[in-house]
Amino acid sequence: xxxxxxxxxxxxxxxxxxxxxxxxxxxxxxxxxxxxxxxxxxxxxxxxxxxxxxxxxxxxxxxxxxxxxxxxxxxxxxxxxxxxxxxxxxxxxxxxxxxxxxxxxxxxxxxxxxxxxxxxxxxxxxxxxxxxxxxxxxxxxxxxxxxxxxxxxxxxxxxxxxxxxxxxxxxxxxxxxxxxx
Length: 181
Fold this sequence. Notes:
Layout: H1 2-63, E1 83-87, E2 90-99, E3 102-111, E4 116-117, E5 122-128, E6 134-142, E7 147-152, E8 159-168, E9 171-180
Antiparallel strand pairs: 1-2, 2-3, 3-4, 3-7, 5-6, 5-8, 6-7, 8-9
């Protein structure tokens, strides 16, 4: 009888050791997961703060364009607050603004690391309206604003899918954008 009790105590002790070892490993994994989660949160917070500081420069760019010819700003990327697509060495940006008669499209086409304005492109917007109909709109170059622009007269509410095609000296560029009205 004593040997049975001794065997039961030994078996229970070994079982508890195994449970403790398994449970301790799980806690270690959980603490590693918590550390990784904290690290990811910190990285996301840093990205958010960087984005916020970038947004303030966007607001500055929208409010004051007087530094366009300022040499200290030369070669620096200026976002105009729109949707951006990088296509090879080209920077494509579409800014939409709702107006009484429809939507105004501003399209910025720039090249290279210095984002030099491309003024000799043939630019067309293929627009899918919210009802599914297709519309092709040519964009004209505005030398004063250094951008391509057009008006979309449709006023239907919903999402508009826009495919911008630019031909720069025989080189074809495509950018896909969307906007809601």
